């Protein structure tokens, strides 16, 4: 007799497009850091849906907010006002220190929104000639899957046979502030970077990089867009990863954990001078800023603060990093960590480690071929982390 999991995976393989290569596990229940398959086996989630589940699976306060709002109204579209868009935009504006917030749903939509804002700003405020606006991006980036976002990418897997791409994009080495300075022209609208590159394998830029971008953008009247979709909301031990260098970007791009692992919620935040380039009819989304999303997101933000998840990420991240550094395996090339945002790079592919860890009850995923990412929900307890470290030691020490 086939296990339920096997049947589900076969069905998905049969009818679903093969645009992912998931580990062979079906997750059918989840709570906090733990998930279960249909057979009742329990695993610890060390991926957090690529950092979207920072608050832990089904956080009771977030689920309560979801249920409460579901009993009132879930979707209005922006044709009408809803009660929660005001309080939610105020909350996100206060959090980012920006004047205004524009809601979207997925991370890549927020990236699109930021690029569109920057282009309009370049034409309408900076005075760049029509169709000349340029964007500077960093090599190795991941900003999402739309054509605009992959036009920023230099990853062959993400871009092959999808052209023609969005023009006027320059791609420079990540971590090199001088390269950005050299790429800027009078037509440059914005520089977009991840404060730490997540999908590239938790690549932490050299100290001073974000400050250098901040300065060079200011000097040249260019917008600094920080894609904090993955690094934001306490993942790296600060609310936003830009805080590691005390830097404030012109546009924050946010997603993932903004929705508390429950609902897709994304946004950009920027000051009036930039956000006012949007006028009615110029941009939008049917689902962006819907009441359910706002209710969930307000609760998600509340949980991050109430449980001081940034501090927890910082402290447990350091502890985890030290434990990983003690693993005796010559195949480990580097351990890179900022809070509970950790990459362990090997000299060879790591898929087999992920599969072995799964057998031990720890779920994680390779990023590219050679790096294992460990990014558990930030609500993880010390004893839960210790349990995982023991398993990780066992698998990675051989
Ligand atoms: N930006 C960054 C930095 C990301 O890590 C991701 C997702 N991994 C995205 C954008 C895209 O987010 P989404 O998948 O929600 O579109």
Verbal overview:
It is built from 14 helices and 15 strands. By secondary structure, it is α/β, with parallel strands linked by helices. Strands 4-10-9-8-7-5-6 form a 7-stranded mixed beta sheet, sandwiched between helices. β11 and β12 form a beta hairpin. It starts with a helix and ends with a helix. Bound molecules: 4'-deoxy-4'-aminopyridoxal-5'-phosphate (PMP). 4'-deoxy-4'-aminopyridoxal-5'-phosphate (PMP) binds next to α5.
Features:
398 residues, alpha/beta, Aspartate Aminotransferase, domain 1, Aspartate Aminotransferase, domain 2, 2 domains, seven-stranded mixed β-sheet, four-stranded mixed β-sheet, 15 strands, 37% helix, binds 4'-deoxy-4'-aminopyridoxal-5'-phosphate, ornithine aminotransferase activity, aminotransferase, PyrdxlP-dep_Trfase_small, proline biosynthesis, Ornithine aminotransferase
């Amino acid at each position: 007799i086939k296990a339920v999991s096997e049947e589900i995976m076969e069905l998905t393989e049969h009818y679903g497009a093969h645009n992912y290569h998931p580990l062979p596990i079906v997750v059918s229940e989840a709570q906090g850091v733990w998930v279960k398959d249909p057979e009742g086996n329990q695993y610890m989630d060390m991926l957090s849906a690529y950092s979207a589940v920072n608050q832990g699976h089904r956080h009771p306060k977030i689920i309560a907010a979801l249920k409460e709002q579901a009993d009132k109204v879930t979707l209005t579209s922006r044709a009408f006002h809803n009660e929660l868009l005001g309080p939610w935009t105020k909350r996100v504006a206060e959090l980012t220190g920006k004047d205004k917030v524009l809601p979207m749903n997925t991370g890549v939509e927020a990236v699109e929104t930021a690029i569109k804002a920057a282009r309009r700003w370049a034409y309408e405020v900076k005075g760049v000639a029509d169709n000349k606006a340029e964007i500077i991006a960093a090599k190795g980036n991941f900003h999402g899957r739309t054509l605009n976002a992959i036009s920023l990418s230099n990853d062959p897997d993400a871009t092959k046979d999808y052209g023609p791409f969005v023009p006027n994009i320059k791609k420079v080495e990540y971590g090199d502030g001088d390269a950005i300075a050299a790429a800027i022209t009078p037509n440059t609208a914005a520089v977009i970077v991840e404060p730490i590159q997540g999908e590239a394998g938790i690549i932490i830029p050299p100290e001073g990089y974000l400050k250098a971008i901040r300065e060079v953008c200011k000097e040249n009247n260019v917008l600094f867009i920080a894609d904090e979709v993955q690094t934001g909301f306490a993942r790296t031990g600060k609310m936003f990863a830009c805080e590691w260098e005390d830097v404030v970007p012109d546009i924050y791009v946010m997603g993932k954990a903004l929705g508390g692992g429950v609902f897709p919620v994304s946004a950009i935040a920027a000051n009036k001078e930039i956000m006012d380039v949007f006028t009615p009819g110029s941009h939008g989304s049917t689902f962006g800023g819907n009441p359910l999303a706002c209710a969930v997101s307000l609760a998600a933000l509340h949980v991050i603060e109430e449980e001081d998840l940034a501090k927890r990420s910082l402290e447990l991240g350091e502890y985890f990093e030290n434990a990983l550094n003690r693993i005796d395996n010559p195949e480990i090339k580097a351990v890179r960590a900022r809070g509970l945002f950790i990459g362990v790079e090997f000299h060879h592919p790591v898929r087999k480690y992920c599969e072995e860890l799964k057998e031990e009850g720890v779920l994680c995923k390779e990023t590219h071929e050679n790096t294992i990412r460990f990014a558990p929900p930030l609500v993880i307890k010390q004893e839960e982390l210790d349990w995982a470290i023991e398993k990780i030691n066992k698998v990675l020490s051989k």
